[in-house]
Amino acid sequence: MRRLSCLVLVLLAVLALSSCSHGDGGSAFVSRSEIATFVDVAGVLSSDEVDARRVELFEPDRSFATRFTPLASTSTQIWMRIDADVFHALPESSLVEPVILMFDDNRVREAEFHAIGPGGRQSQTWQKFSRTEAGRGTGFRYPVFLLNPVLLDQARFYLSIRTDAPIRGNLRIADFQGFAAFYDRGTRLLTLLLGVRIAVFAYILALGLFLKSRTNLWLAALVGTGLLQVSVENGFFQATVPFGGDDLTRSLVLGSLFATYVTLIGFTTRFLRLHVRAPRIFAAAILFTKFLVALTVVALVDGFADAGIMSIVVPYARLAVLLFTIVAIAAALQRGPRRALSFFLAWLPVMGAVGLRVLQDFTPQWAPAAISYEATIIGITLSLTLFAILSSMDVQRREFRLKANIRQNVERFKAFAEIGTDASWEVDAHGRLSFFAGRSSPLPRLRLGEPFADLIERVSSPEATAPVRAAIEGNVPFDNVRLRLTAPRDEERWISLSGRPIPPLLGERMRSSVYRGLIRDVSEEVEREGRRMMEQQVFALGQLAGSVAHEINNLIHPILNLTKRLRSRHKPDTDPEGGRMLDLIELSSRQAAKVVSELLQTMRGDRVMEVERPLSTALNQALDAIRPALPSSVGIELHGEDGDGPLVRVGDMLQVLGNLVSNAVHAMDGQGAIHIELSKLERGMKMTVSDNGHGMEERVRLRALQPFFSTKTDGKGTGVGLYIVQRIVSDYKGWVAIDSAPGEGTSVTIYIPDPGGPDAD
Question: For the chain, what percentages of helix, strand and coil (3-state, to nearest 5) are there?
Fold first, then answer.
């Protein structure tokens, strides 16, 4: 935008220098009072007839509107009678050289100058698109005639003009130096303006194509059609294109004019965003544009046919375009005042020039005698350049909003990545980590620039990482590759890796990255899946336990029956020790049958109701059944308060205490002491079973209550003991807690509330 602003400043400076660097020198402007005009509609009068009827045709104060009257046909001629006194405005030194008469209106396509005096009649003809004059280097953009100074005081002067539109120029007289200065200045200025327009056209077109902006493309079309119109009107097109004649030129003049109107309506509609801010005006603009497109086609045909019809339509089309622009600005002011105001200010020079042309077309008595063509072109070029600046400002605002949105999205996605458990990564062509965002846990700190596969392999294994490495090297996608990691404190953690190759075009823009993916912590998911699998195994184990219990019961029943027969034959008086052994065999057999039954009921969840006893009583009975099975090197003591307490089933406590004591004996390697503390709380009772064994690491303690988790490597552990304890205690609405550390033994605390009472904290 700075370059465009500088371009505008340079343009204004050059225009100012062009306007003041060369004065008109020996030239003079012919005022309205020194010219009388009339229109020969049919174009059939000769110069002799006009001279003979000069008093009739050139009435005093004849309306000057004839200069701006729409032409009936291309044959229509506008006649001007020039007062001989106008030549006395030149310095006397200029009257010894040929005097130049010029009419600076590039819309004139043919002109004839007649000097009729006592010595006869002299005539000169000028044609705008004469290739003969252009080849000799004497072709000018507008009519130019050389006058003999001898005839200036003796002759009567007439100028006839044929044009495709109402004339708008000025009549001037000058000596040779004044004409050269005036014409050269206008040519340089016109060339400069065309160069500026070409630069604006190229910039806006490139901007519109790159951004796919319809507004900029409409503006580029407007600049392009205007550029074509100016080139054709001033003869640049004819000088560069070897083919085509007057018909093609007239067709392009009229066609480019209406095409400019079409592009102006399209640009106005898009720039003011009428489709959003004024839908009704937008619908009218579409219909108006279609109508102007049709007129453009008709104008092209009219130019070839030289019918002159569109010359009558041009003023009305100009007025309609001006009125539509004003209405569109007024409609856009309500919902987009800033944009509408900028459009109005940028378009103000053109609207002023068009407004003066409309006055000339419809109210010539209120219009200036002539409008400078150079001033009109300057105003249009300045407006188009201002619109180019506005387009550049729009691009900057869009870029600023885009950058702000990008920053906001980056922060948003970064926040999402930090909140979630997923982490994103990218690697370059060498497999090195080039980008990482999100949580790296449970991975160690990842450093950019290091081989990504090596970083994963450090916390996993080469075999597990091999599929990931092969996918990255082969540039193929992979999904949900799970890796087992060894995290701090020897905790078992799992991650899931997924990856996709970056498309080549996107990879070139991102330069360094060629592969990207996600890292997801699936430790909890794996644990849930493990629990579901364990529950399925427990269910299967329950079914197996039914079969096993049936077989064990078949073995226990003969023992009980044989014990009864032996007791009937036994004589207590002669062998009291044998009687005690039979009692122990019978008690153990019955207790084994009960344990098998309770185990089966626990696994199935449908334990039958048996007689319930206070917790202290049930523990004492369970302990009496367990003591005979303990090694002599293991001591066990029960300390606690007797009382009513919560009611429990003896078989449940036998399973609970049996599993806890069995684990304690294993932890102490068969030697040590087991302490059972029973204490009464306000709303229940708490039992603590402690040993002085090896203790557990933290990761083992956290998983101790999971089914099928065991640290026994000798094949003696099933991993369901503590799980059964937890299920039994849960049935009484209680809880189990484990406190252990390596070398400090283990304490298992069980809390059982009173029936109907609230859980303890």
Answer: 55, 20, 25
Domain limits at 625?
611-761
CA 223 – CA 233 distance, rounded (Å): 15
- Residue 243 pLDDT > 70: no
Q: How confident is the model at residue 21 (pLDDT cuts 50, 70, 90)?
A: very low
List, in order, residues 6 or more apart from 219 with CB less than 8 Å away: 204, 208, 267, 271, 384, 387, 388, 391
Nearest Cα to Cα of residue 656 among 543, 536, 752: 752
**Cβ(101)–Cβ(173) under 8 Å?**
yes
The domain boundary residue, chosen from 467, 487, 521 = 521
CA distances from 119 to 101, 151, 251 (A): 20, 9, 42
Two tokens, residue 570: 């036994």
* Omega within 30 of 0 (cis) for the link into 504: no
| Per-residue pLDDT band at 127 (split at 50, 70, 90) | confident
**Is 415 a domain residue?**
no
The pLDDT-based confidence of 60 (bands split at 50, 70, 90) is low
Residues 357 and 475 in one domain: no
Reference 85, options 139, 36, 136; nearest CA is 36
| Sign of the CA dihedral with 606 first, then 609, 615, and 617 last | negative
Beta-strand pair 672-680/634-640 = parallel
Q: What is the pLDDT of residues 273-287, one digit of tens each?
A: 999 889 999 999 999
Residue-by-residue DSSP string for 590-625: HHHHHHHHHHHHHHHT-PPP--EEEHHHHHHHHHHH
Give the count of beta carbons closer than 10 Å to the beta carbon of residue 444. Answer: 13
Q: What are phi and psi for residue 483, nearest 5 degrees? A: -125, 135
pLDDT tier, 643 (very low <50, low <70, confident <90, very high otherwise): low
Q: What is the pLDDT of residue 507?
A: 44
Q: What is residue 309's predicted lDDT score, i.e. its pLDDT?
A: 78
Residue 9: inside a domain: no
pLDDT (tens digit, 9 = 90+) per residue, 358-376?
877 777 666 665 566 777 7
109 touches 162 (CB < 8 A): yes
Instruction: Read off the pLDDT of each residue in 440-452 and give the average, rounded to a whole number.
Output: 74
408, amino acid identity:
Q
Identify whether residues 130 and 93 lie together within a single domain: yes
* Side-chain-side CA neighbours of residue 200 (13 Å): 35
3-class DSSP assignment, residue 689: strand
Q: Which of 24, 22, 12, 390 is nearest to 192 (CA)?
A: 12
Is the residue at 115 inside a domain? yes
Which residues are 111's β-sheet partners? 126, 161
Alpha-carbon gap, residue 641 to 622, rounded angstroms: 16
Q: Quick one: pLDDT at residue 288?
A: 94
From CA 172, how far away is CA 102, in angstroms rounded? 5
The per-residue pLDDT for 601 is 61
Q: Are 641 and 616 in contact (CB under 8 A)?
A: yes
Q: pLDDT for 571-614, tens place per residue?
A: 676 777 777 787 778 777 777 777 666 655 655 555 545 668 88
Whole-number pLDDT of residue 281? 93
**187-211 b/e (C-beta count within 10 Å ≥ 16 → b):** eebbebbbebbeebbebbbebbeeb
Q: Over 60: is that where the pLDDT of 155 sits?
A: yes
90 with 212, same domain: the answer is no
Res 450 pLDDT > 60:
yes
Show the tokens assigned to 597.
Answer: 């039954």
In the chain, the number of structural domains is: 5
434 and 363 co-located in one domain = no
3-class state of residue 640 by DSSP: strand
| Angle between helical axes of 650-667 and 721-731 (0-180°, round to 10) | 150
For residue 329, what pLDDT is reported? 93
pLDDT of 417 > 80? The answer is no
Residue 205 and residue 159 share a domain? no
Q: Give Cα separations from 667 to 639, 654, 674, 743 (angstroms).
A: 21, 20, 11, 11
